[in-house]
Each structure stands twice: as structure tokens, then as C-alpha cells.
Amino acid sequence: MNTPATEAQDQSDMAQLAAGRDTALNDLMSRHAERLFHFLIRLLQDEAEAADLAQETFARVYLNRAKFRAGKRFSTWLYAIATNLARDR
Prior knowledge:
By secondary structure, this protein is mainly α. It contains four helices and no strands. The longest helix is centred in the middle third of the chain and has 21 residues, at 24-44. 21% of the residues are buried.
């Protein structure tokens, strides 16, 4: 579960990512990758597929960084991207 401090850091990292500091993605990944991977394993029932989709999810975060709306929960946006990618498989 995200704490208010985590959410504030996510907001900061997304603002930095949108401003061109690409290394902010590493910080987001370090906080969310493991939990996202386990979510995708439960959803897909396939570890290899879950690993691929987790990577694709973060690639989409990067590609769509300008579309993230400040003030919204990053984790909700992240999991929506992952769920939509899983549905499209």
C-alpha cells in the first residue's frame, strides 16, 4: 500500500520525468516494480509473461509521461496501464 510519503515521491518523480530527468523512472521502478510484477503474475498466471508485461508497462509510463495528470495517484495510473496491456494480450 502506498503511504502519503510514497505518493508524494511518485508525484515528484513523475514531474521530474516529464521535465526530462529520465533517471526518475529508475526511482519509480525501484518502488513499484516488484509489486507490479506480482500483480501481473496473479493476473496472467505466467511469470515470463508477467516479467515482459511489467517492463512494457514502465516503457509506456515513460512514453506517456506527459499525459500523467499531477495530483492523481501514480499507482492507479500504473496499474491501469498494466491491466490494459494484459487485456490486449
